[in-house]
Amino acid sequence: MTLAQALLQIGADVSRVADATFSVAGLQWILITLVCYTAALALFRLAGGSPWLHPLVITATGVGMTLYLTETSIADFQTYAGIIHWLLGPATVALAIPMYNQWQQVRDLGWHLLVSVMAGGILAPLLAWTTLYLLDAPLALQMTMLVKSITTPLAMEASANIGGVPALAAVFVITTGIVGAVVTPAVFHIFRVTGAAAQGVALGTVAHAVGTAKALQMSEQAGAMATLGLCLNGIVTAVILPLML
Amino acid sequence: MTVLIRHLLGWTGLLLCYFAGKVLVLMWELPLPAALTGLLLMLLMLFVRGGAVSVATAGAPLLRHMSVLFVPAVLGVGVYWQSIYLHGWALAAAIVGTTVVALGLTGLVAQRVLQRRLVQTE
């Protein structure tokens, strides 16, 4: 594809999203989504940040119920509120910021950190894929499951590149995060993981952003290490998987 | 006023990296996701310039409220309900079971490799 063609395609994408956004239905559905999200945030805070009440789960339920009651199809909603999905692109680019901020830590800890993150980055997808393979699940599900431990925007993009399903990737990833955050105290007790740094790295690497939020509740050091695990594992996995498969 | 300019500059930077990533992927048919390429470009820019306050300002709300951006995608899962229902047990085992094991084993490795190193340096 030439530069001009690429720019034309990007321009067409942007104008399609802009057209949908500045329509009555577009503004209406964006507003409904934001209202649901604000309510979900309030509820999440009220519950002391319980992973069960992750804002995405509550927001999606609220919007889904509104769609059902107004007899609007999900495909129409996705067109009207297209800008919300489109913003994932710039948000993914913004993930470079925490990675850059934590770079000094990467240099200080060196291979000690890399080995720890690699353990989670390889174990989590390998175990999940093996489970689905042994239980005879379809190939698209197997491919999607490979990205379950990396942060949602990277998981959605990477899954599309390896023959998975982005929408399923989003659900698998969020579920993984919630499960990870909920079982953390028991798992760390059983496996005798006592250090804040070790707990943080494991949470960020295996349970991405939801795990990082949990680590931040535990201690500042655990939170910083979780952010590192999240960024490193997310970027490296999303680069390697499409090249490998 | 300066805050507003900082946001505008930061957004310009984020969008430029995003679009540049997309252009590169389309032109050279890279086997990489477009936004990830944009992320790598942004990382390169941050290293070359030694950080950028404007990008950090503009990126902060995006990162903090990323959850809401997944709503359209997550709702799209309804189309695959049949396949989730058919393989419910396999999916549950893959997500719950392996997350528990991976979390524990990763913690164990980090405890041995990383935590020990931190204790030594303190």
TrEMBL record, chain A:
Identify the InterPro entries for this entry.
Answer: CidB/LrgB (IPR007300)
Q: Where does this protein chiefly localize? A: membrane
Query: Which residue ranges run through the membrane?
Result: 20-44, 51-70, 82-101, 113-135, 162-183, 190-210, 222-244
Query: Pfam families attached here?
Result: LrgB
Q: Where in the cell is it found?
A: Membrane
Organism's domain of life?
Bacteria
Keyword Metal-binding on entry: no
Record membrane topology: Multi-pass membrane protein
Entry keywords, A to Z? Membrane, Transmembrane, Transmembrane helix
This chain's protein is named LrgB family protein
Automatic annotation (TrEMBL), chain B:
- The portions of this protein that span the membrane are 7-28, 34-55, 62-81, 87-110
The record ties this protein, via Pfam families, to: LrgA (PF03788)
Q: Kindly indicate whether the keyword Cell membrane belongs to this entry.
A: yes
Give the subcellular location. Answer: Cell membrane
Keyword terms, alphabetized? Cell membrane, Membrane, Transmembrane, Transmembrane helix
Q: How does it sit in the membrane?
A: Multi-pass membrane protein
UniProt superkingdom: Bacteria
Stated name of the protein: CidA/LrgA family protein
Source organism: Alteromonas salexigens
